[in-house]
Amino acid sequence: MFIMENIKEKNKKNYIKEFLPYLIIILVVIFIKVYIVSPIRVNGVSMDSTLKDGDIMLLDEISYRFSDIERFDIVVIHRDDEYLIKRIIGLPGEKVYYDDGKLYINNKYIKENFKHKKTEDFSTVTLDDGEYFVMGDNRVNSTDSRIFGPVLRDDIIGKTSLTIFPFSRFGNKK
After folding, report:
1. List of the chain residues with pLDDT < 50
2. Is 168 a catalytic residue?
């Protein structure tokens, strides 16, 4: 009887040793997905032509916590129980406006180095500390800060720029 119990105990230990690495891998993958990088799907046409409806991208949820958010970064924001993908246009403390379809920050013309649709002019928006002005690249068909106002830093979930699917659109979309 003692020999059988000893064999069962050894089998149990071997079973645990065999599956422990798999359990660790699963826990690490879950940690990475929840806290560092997760897939996100583009929903809608507000970022055309940079991003297409249905593109799947990787959302970096950690690096922006250790570095500044920069003008023209593509970010995911949480607003009214939905996630929106937009581009950072104005940074905290700035005055943002468009005149003759051109971006002005603090009364200085800023060249936009990415493709976007024509932007209708709007009057100056002054951002407080911790506020960002975001817009979609498809300016004619985007619900953004022109409509709902500035976005708080706490509402920014992370940055995204890498499209992973469809494979024909794989790559960095800055």
Report:
1. none
2. no
- Pairing, β 131-135 against β 82-90: antiparallel
Options 8, 10, 46, 111, the catalytic residue: 46
- What is the SS3 assignment for the chain? CHHHHHHHHHHHHHHHHHHHHHHHHHHHHHHHHHHCEEEEECCCCCCCCCCCCCCEEEEECCHHHHCCCCCCCEEEEEECCEEEEEEEEECCCCEEEEECCEEEECCEEECCCCCCCCCCCEEEEECCCCEEEEECCCHHHCCCHHHHCCEEHHHEEEEEEEEEECHHHCEECC
Question: Quick check: is 86 catalytic?
Answer: yes
Output the pTM of the full model: 0.80
**Which of 86, 145, 159, 173 is labelled catalytic?**
86
pLDDT digits (tens, 9 = 90+) for 99-137: 999 999 999 999 998 888 888 999 999 999 999 999 999
CB 86 within 8 A of CB 45: no
Rounded CA-CA distance 77/41 in Å is 13
